[in-house]
Design goal:
This protein is mainly α. The chain has helices spanning about 15-20, 25-30, 55-60, 60-80, 105-120, 125-135, 160-180, 185-200, 235-245, 250-270, 305-315, 320-335, 360-370, 375-385, 395-410; strands at about 40, 50, 90, 95, 230, 280. The longest helix is centred in the middle third of the chain and has 21 residues, at about 250-270. The radius of gyration is 20 Å and the shape is globular.
């Protein structure tokens, strides 16, 4: 397969003028050229815009795309099937998303659930998820006040910046989409963002730090303890740009710097040929000196990096370097599109497993939503369309990434 030309990678810059020009230009990027093809249609509001990637590549109507996404959401979040019960469960406090394999209630599942609910206009689901989380997953006092547990276990000792970033952003979108409903979405979002960004401003108390390292300018793996490593998939430049636009003015410059640093970091940890990234690295973006704690592996967490970059490309334009990483990933995984890809590789693309991963197939398609039009991109988009809704014991992670892929490729994900 012919590879994309590779210009010299330069340091990633900020998202540029489009990120600072206000929401209208972002909407143009989302429903316009960034997430879609080149043909023009007219939607129900009379606005001309290119087709979504699914419509462009598969020549299907928007109604069929919407039906597929809605059916998948209903199966994964509302199915009463005894063998494949939904990953969303209810109790008197509200609702939660559960990893059916382990029984854990995780903040990342909460974050993805809220993000999907606000994007699909499922306010009742959103309110139930957030009601449960506020009562059961959020610290209410002490140095951790306002932060969220990663796993709702007996000790709850590991707040997760990835899940919290999705929660804070989804709450903000909910405020803009629905106004103040059952919850004060805007206030809750600001409270969480403030805890993530400023917890150690007046010094470290009870070993609780801010979620971002002030020197390295990247998100840390946890705010508990002086953590000196990160997970690249936790880096969400598009979200930091959203926070910069609509949060406290005094945070705007820092947040745009964090967005620029996240783009630069994701380029630096990506292989220059395959686009694969390491799963975890030290804050200097290395694996450490052998025998270091981190290995040369692209595995479960790293799957989401391509989607993070594609979302930033769609909403804020990304930059040439992040576009190249996404295109490299698409080229690499398009060669596996006839079958579901293996679940683990070295960063250079060497296969490390014979186990297949539905989650990775979905993540690759989500990344393709932001890729340069090509045969490889189209192949990954077709492949995820043909996948059935995930079932079985792995349907938590498989299903969430499947929904993220369908949402990205259907043009559903817009920054409210």
């Amino acid at each position: 397969m012919t590879r994309f030309p590779r210009p010299h990678r330069r340091s990633a810059a900020s998202a540029g003028d489009a990120a600072r020009a206000g929401r209208p230009l972002i909407w143009i990027a989302v429903v316009g050229l960034a997430l879609a093809g080149c043909r023009s249609t007219t939607d129900s509001l009379g606005k001309n815009h290119p087709d979504t990637p699914f419509e462009e590549v598969l020549d299907v109507e928007s109604a069929e795309v919407n039906d597929k996404l809605e059916a998948a959401y209903q199966q994964l979040f509302h199915s009463a099937d005894e063998e494949d019960e939904s990953i969303r469960r209810t109790n008197p406090d509200g609702a939660y998303v559960v990893d059916v394999l382990t029984g854990d209630i995780k903040t990342d599942g909460l974050g993805y659930g809220l993000f999907l609910a606000v994007m699909l206009d499922e306010q009742e689901d959103f309110d139930a998820l957030w009601a449960y989380a506020k009562k059961n997953l959020q610290y209410t006092d002490g140095a951790r006040s306002g932060l969220l547990y990663w796993v709702c276990s007996d000790d709850g000792e590991c707040p997760d910046p990835n899940g919290m970033s999705y929660v804070a952003t989804s709450l903000f979108f909910a405020s803009n989409r629905w106004g103040q409903g059952e919850h004060d979405y805007a206030a809750d979002s600001l409270e969480l963002r403030d805890a993530m960004l400023h917890r150690q401003d007046d010094g470290v108390v009870d070993d609780v730090y801010s979620c971002f390292d002030a020197e390295a300018m990247v998100v840390k793996n946890s705010p508990i303890g002086d953590i000196r490593f990160t997970t690249p998939a936790f880096m969400l430049p598009a979200f930091y740009e959203i926070w910069a636009e609509d949060g406290p003015a005094e945070d705007a410059e820092m947040l745009r710097d964090l967005a620029a640093a996240a783009r630069d970091a994701l380029v630096r940890v990506a292989d220059p040929v395959t686009g694969l990234t390491w799963e975890q690295v030290y804050l200097d973006l290395t694996l450490g000196s052998p025998p270091g704690d981190f290995t040369d592996h692209f595995w479960v967490d790293a799957y989401r990096v391509g989607f993070n970059l594609a979302l930033d490309i769609a909403w804020f334009g990304g930059n040439d370097d992040t576009q190249e990483v996404v295109d490299d990933l698409v080229v690499f995984f398009s060669e596996y599109a006839e079958e579901v890809p293996f679940d683990e590789y070295k960063r250079n693309g060497e296969e490390l497993s014979e186990t297949r991963s539905i989650a990775l197939a979905a993540a690759n398609a989500a990344a393709a939503s932001g890729a340069t039009p090509s045969a490889g991109r189209d192949t990954l988009i077709r492949a995820v369309w043909e996948l059935p809704v995930p079932t079985g014991q792995n349907r938590y992670y498989d299903g969430l990434l499947y929904l993220l892929a369908l949402g990205a490729l259907s043009g559903t994900f817009v920054p409210y």
